[in-house]
Amino acid sequence: MGAFEYRQAQEIRDALKRHSVRYLFIGKSGAILLGFPDTTQDADLLVDRSPENGRALVNALRELGFALTDEHALDIERGKDFVQLKNGPFDLDLIFAPDGIECFSDAWERHVDVEGFPVCHIDDIIASKEAANRQKDRETLPRLRAFREYWIRQRS
Asked: Deepest of 130, 132, 135, 140, by most Cβ within 10 A of its Cβ?
């Protein structure tokens, strides 16, 4: 699958809004929406963990064209910590319990709205990547930290 595109982020935003899903873009896809000059292969969403929100998300994902199995739908409705979807129009990671972030409501309080996209604050994106401590995250972190400094200056 190719690189994740802005058009796909718009499709996610619009479908999830129609179904009143509470979520935030996180990870590199979130950083890209903040202006980070990079690419990613998928979108990462931090999702509010509640059965009602999970059911709304399942409906939105089906509308987007994801062929959800019953098992995937149940995992999403119960808020399994991490659900990876590769059975739709693009790859999507659903994160209900991200490393480095205490809870959705805390991240929501700090989030940034970018052209209608609810995005985790850059500090939460960095904290999550630091806590995950994967090789690919360790390689990206110096550039994310440098971008953070630029991003903060631009907002001042």
From this structure: 140
- Using CA atoms, how far apart are residues 76 and 31, in angstroms rounded to an integer? 24
pLDDT of 1 above 90: no
Query: To which residue do tokens 């090789």 refer?
Result: 135
What percent of the chain stands above pLDDT 90? 96
- CB-CB neighbours of 154 under 10 Å: 9
The CATH class, in words, for 6-155 is alpha beta
Phi, psi values for residue 16, rounded to 5°: -70, -35
- Nearest 10 degrees: Cα torsion 99, 84, 118, 66: -170
> Residue 4: its pLDDT value, please?
85
Answer yes or no: is pLDDT of 2 > 80.
Answer: no
Q: Vertex 144, ends 105 and 86: CA angle to 5°?
A: 65
Give the Cα separation of 139 and 142 in Å (integer): 7
60: its two tokens: 């939105």
Q: Rounded to an integer, what distance in angstroms lies between the CA atom of residue 60 and that of residue 39?
A: 25
